[in-house]
Each structure stands twice: as structure tokens, then as C-alpha cells.
Amino acid sequence: MADFDYDLFVIGGGSGGVRCARIAAGHGARVGIAEEARWGGTCVNVGCVPKKIMVQASEYGRLAEDSRGFGWDASPGVHDWASLIAHKDREILRLNGIYTRMLDGSGVTRHEARAVFTGPHALEVGGRTVTAERIVIATGGLPAIQPPIEGMHLGIMSDDAFELPALPRRVVMVGGGYIGMEFAGIFHGLGAEVDVVYRQPLPLRGFDHDLREALAQGVAEQGIRLHPSQTVHRVEAAGDARRVTLSNGHVIEADLVFFAVGRVPKTAGLGLEEAGVATDSRGAVVVDARNVTSQPHIFALGDVSNKLNLTPVAIAEGHHLADRLFGPGQPRTWALDPVATAVFSNPPLATVGLTEEQAVQHGAMDIYIAQFTPMRHVMSGRARKTMMKMIVDQASQRVMGVHMLGDDVAEMMQGIGVALVAGATKQDFDRTIGIHPTSAEEFVTMRTVTRVAPAAQASRAAE
């Protein structure tokens, strides 16, 4: 390896790439990393972190209203969008600095430049050639509009939302995925009128059907207008406003059109063909279970491989890869099936394990469902239900999936994720003492089967 400039070179300074670089350097490898934009990648700069800050900001007006049910004389007041964005920017700058200090402290050589393959072991980085024995592609993804929509240049995509100069009064969200549903809640919670347009009958395609139904109902009860089974036919300028024509001919006037209709791996212009790295039809780097590409010395992790696009997964992949390549002994492992996740919509939801539609492919399932008004909203008077669902394999009694919609679900689901990774059965939940009074205790007090889902045929066809 002394014939190369680096033992390992990482393309991309996001969470997965930075973790891989740091751990490899800690094992004694000579490591370089290149980032052409801001350190921390999508999650820190235009993803999880700023989005969660904006979600939290959107909740305070509702909390002020809800407090009246508890005797407080409070009102939401007037929101200052510019102040929120300034505070958000300061936090991101702080995190950018943490990432660079962690890399510098671990001995990784940073390159604030674009890296492009010029050969299997060679890269052009900031105008000069560097070579590496092994290379990791961790460039992430970026928003895209597919297929193209007439007038789409008159709207924005998710990366643009964090830099808007002012809160729009009327927003049309195009897309019913997690980004669309989260930003619908953000804008509505901060005072905007919001319409959401999506081509499926329910939002969040791929999630459990009952969860999707509960989300659609909960979102509508918050005052967000839903337009299911529709697409955007055309967007036109109407002075400073926008006129959005749907596939059914319905026209919506808005101040902002926000396209949240998908993301694609960020591989264009990387020179992958020069390195002999294969990609699929969507541009994702093709990898095996060990993150190895078509070249045995080149690896890809995170969203660029389009396997399980979650920041903690990319971090786990990067850590494991660095241990495997340079560490002593057996590398640390992670459970990537199941993986708990959350959607910070309004109301929020969280899930781990199989959907009902997936689970019945493995056998007959007992379905447990609880739906209730939590104590907080009995007092606040807000129309906000909690829904909890557990899917249990009849033969083994193993819990195959857990899904929940309501307040604080992400915090609850992390612990449930541990239980499912450990292979917990329904009886393990039943013999666990609940914490009272909480919504979470419902998971250990479910006694009556709501319905039985027969093997190999879901109660509803998956969309």
C-alpha cells in the first residue's frame, strides 16, 4: 500500500463517510476524505437536523393552544420565520465544525473539493491527482422530479426549503412520502394553508396500511387538505403566485409549490465508468451485502447505494467497513433487519419490522390494534388520536412488526426496536410491567386480538 497516497480515500463528507474515515484512521490507516460542499452531508445540512428543528418549531403554537385545557392563559403569538432560520443556521455551522474537528483530531486528511475518478485507484481532487488502495463512495443522494412536470421550475425541492426568505401563506406539497408529509406539518404548524397532492390513495407508500389510514385521518383533522390519487398536470405563474392544475382539472392557487416526489443517488459526474464501477437504472452504485461494488477495492455506503436510506444505517455501514478493512479481530456488527424508523409528520408516526401486508407472506398473523385519545388531549380537547398496532406470528408468537401514530412515538419505538431485534414474543410483552399512566404501556397490555390475517393474503392488497 506504500505505492499509493492513501490506504483509504472516502468521497463524501456525510455521516457515513466521516464515520468510515475516522474509524479507519483510528486503526492506523492513512485516510483522505473529500467533500465539495458542507461537512455533515444531507442529514446535517439539508435533512434530518434542520428538518427536526423546524418540526419542533411548528409544534409550539399548538402546544400553546393546548395549554388552555390545563388552565394556562396562553396564545400562540406571531412566529418569526427569519429568527428560526438564523437559529437553525447557527446550529448547522456548529455541527459542521464538530465534523471537521473530529476528522482533524483523528488524523484524516481533509480535502474541501470535488473528487472524480480518473481510474480504478486514481481520483482528481481539487485539480490534482491522488491515489488510494481502497476507495469508498459515500456521496449520498439529492432531490429529483421524475417524470418531469410542466412548469416545475416554478417550484422548489426539499434542499431549497431551508433557505426560504419568508414563510409562504399558501403551500402546495407535491408528494405523499415522508418528506412531503413532514413539510406539510411544518408549514401548517407555522401558520400556512397547506394542500398535499399525491398519486396513491393514501400517503406513505410502503408503510403499513392501517398506519397510512390513521395518518391521512390525523393530517386532515389538523386542517391540511389532502388530494389523494392525483398528480400535478401543470404549474403556471400567476403574478407572484402559482396556479397548480391537478390531473382531475382542479386548480389550486398557492404562493409556494414544493416538490417532494423522490430522491436519486448522487453519482452523476463521479467518473464511475473510469473506475469500472457499475450502477443500476436509477444511478445507484450496485453493491453486495458487504458494500463491495463491481470493483473489489471500491465500496459504497449510505444513500448512494439506495439500499436503506437512513443516516444511522450509513453510519453503521461506514463503521463496520472500516473495522473490517483495517481493524483487529471481528468487526462490530449491527442489526439491519429490522430497523426502527420514524416520520416526523403531524401527527408523527414510527414503525419497526414488517407491515401486515409483508408479514402474511410468512404465515397467519394475529393483529392487535388500539386506538384512543391520550390523556393530554382528553384535557386539551384537540382531535388527536393515538393508534398502536402489533403484528404477531400465530405459530411462533414472535412479534413481527409494531406500528404507531401519535405523540412521542419516535422515542417509544426505539425501545420497541431493541425488543424486535432480540426476537421478543407476544408473551415477552405481556409479562412486562407497564409504566402508568403512559401511552407506551398499551404495548404491554394488549390482550384481545383485533383480527386474524390469514397466511399469504393480506386483509387489504398492498398498493
Write up what this structure looks like.
With 463 residues, this protein is of the alpha/beta class. 30% of the residues lie in helices and 24% in strands. The strands form five sheets. Strands 1, 2, 3, 4, 5, 6 and 17 form a seven-stranded mixed sheet that branches. A six-stranded antiparallel sheet has the order 18-19-22-21-20-23, sandwiched between helices. Strands 8-15-9-10-11 form a five-stranded parallel sheet. The C terminus is likely disordered.
What's the domain count? Answer: 3
CATH topology of the largest domain: FAD/NAD(P)-binding domain
**Which residues form runs of ≥5 with pLDDT under 50?**
458-463
The average pLDDT value, as a whole number, equals 96
In whole angstroms, the N-to-C terminal distance is 51 Å
How much of the residues is beta strand, in percent?
Answer: 15-25%
The whole-angstrom Rg is 24 Å
* Helix run count: 13
- Shape from CA axes? globular
CATH class of the largest domain: Alpha Beta
Total number of beta strands = 23
Largest sheet: 7 strands, mixed
Q: Which structural category fits the helices and strands?
A: alpha/beta
List its salient traits.
463 residues; alpha/beta; FAD/NAD(P)-binding domain; Enolase-like, domain 1
Summary, kept brief:
With 463 residues, this protein is α/β, with parallel strands linked by helices.
Spell out the blueprint of helices and strands.
Elements: E1 6-11, H1 15-26, E2 31-34, H2 41-46, H3 48-66, H4 81-105, E3 109-111, E4 115-117, E5 122-125, E6 128-137, E7 141-143, E8 156-157, H5 158-161, E9 170-174, H6 178-189, E10 193-197, H7 209-221, E11 225-227, E12 232-238, E13 241-246, E14 251-254, E15 256-259, E16 263-265, H8 272-275, E17 298-300, H9 311-326, E18 341-343, E19 349-353, H10 356-359, E20 365-372, H11 375-380, E21 386-393, E22 399-405, H12 409-421, H13 426-430, E23 451-453
Parallel strand pairs: 1-2, 1-6, 2-3, 6-17, 8-15, 9-10, 9-15, 10-11
Antiparallel strand pairs: 4-5, 5-6, 7-16, 12-13, 13-14, 18-19, 19-22, 20-21, 20-23, 21-22
Helix pairs in contact: 1-9, 3-4, 3-6
